[in-house]
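Please, does this match?
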Amino acid sequence: MLKGIPSALAPELLKILMEMGHGDELVLADGNFPAASHAQRLIRCDGLAIPQLLDAILALFPLDSYAERSVALMAVVPGDPVVPVIWDEYRAIIAKHEPQAAELEQVERFAFYERAKKAYAIVATGETAQYANLILKKGVVLGA
């Protein structure tokens, strides 16, 4: 145990967050996402929901302020009546940690899959909400 590290961050995930550099992307995948077949590096957090994990990650992880958009969502497939209410929860968590962050990018489903394949890592979660997948682009930590 360490002081100040959110308990939702398992050692393997904390290691990945530390390894990532500016511009690297991290996918937080819901329970239906094909994480194992798309990941270069796979971290399993099956018992956690994405909002809990997102809050813990953003306590330590800077979003890329140089990117036009540093957070991307999987867009709702045209014609699907689902309204992803979890997105509002994401916006609130992001605003808490990164108030200057731009509006969230929406990426078409298959383009999201292709982008996920290039991500530094994919975190497989137990999230059950539909369209809950998101990508975080890492920024920089400025010296004191």
Notes: The longest strand covers residues 25-29.
